[in-house]
Prior knowledge:
The chain has helices at about 45-50, 75-80, 100-110, 115-125, 145-155, 175-190, 200-205, 225-230, 235-245, and strands spanning about 1-10, 20-30, 30-35, 55-65, 65, 85, 160-165, 190-195, 210-215, 215-220. The chain is α/β, with parallel strands linked by helices. The mean pLDDT is about 95.
Amino acid sequence: MTFLALDGVSAGYPGKPDVLTDVTLSIARGEVVGLIGPSGSGKSSLLRALVGLLRPHAGRVTIGGELVDYANKASLRAARDRLAIVFQQYNLFQNMTALRNVEIAPRLVKRRAGTEVQAEARALLAKVGLGAKLDAYPDELSGGQQQRVAIARALALRPDILLLDEVTSALDPELVTEVLDTIRTLRDEGMTMLIVSHEMAFIREVASLVVFMDQGRIVEVGPPARIFDAPQTQRLREFTAKILRH
């Protein structure tokens, strides 16, 4: 059953060509969707459009059957209550500990009680393997650890859907695995996720559905085995031939 649906979504910046054109996609609850494609293909723009950072000017987005009206503040706020996005850059507050970084959004945005929020923040940091780093400041953490704090911070908002935008691309190769392990844990727990990544082996492993984009459009959608082993379009065949050769 469809949980997140995009129907003919187009989006762009004023005075420039659209970065998303007629995007249609259906995602079930608990599905892990890998978004792949060349740089500039619209993968990150799709995540930004879902949370209203890039406003769609055509098409429809529904979450759990509820239409998102991006021009309506209440509707957009309701959608953002169900979505959380983690960017390539960690964007942590440098003057706050890991625990405080995870606590602050639920306290300020959700107006939740401090004791409840702190207990949940501690549990989330333990989940991402940072239970011993509660009092560490960002500059005392590795890049991989900071990214895991960012993921814990997003989870503290209790989203229905987690959007991950190239969360390993700024990391040294040896730090990538610890972040990917966190994502595997979330998959096993049934979190619905859309993941933009150039880590093709990881996408093949973790995704239940792979979406190949090019020039702002969805070119091909399918299970990982078909996308990587038996692409149906010439454009995807060209892409996989290049990435699998390296």
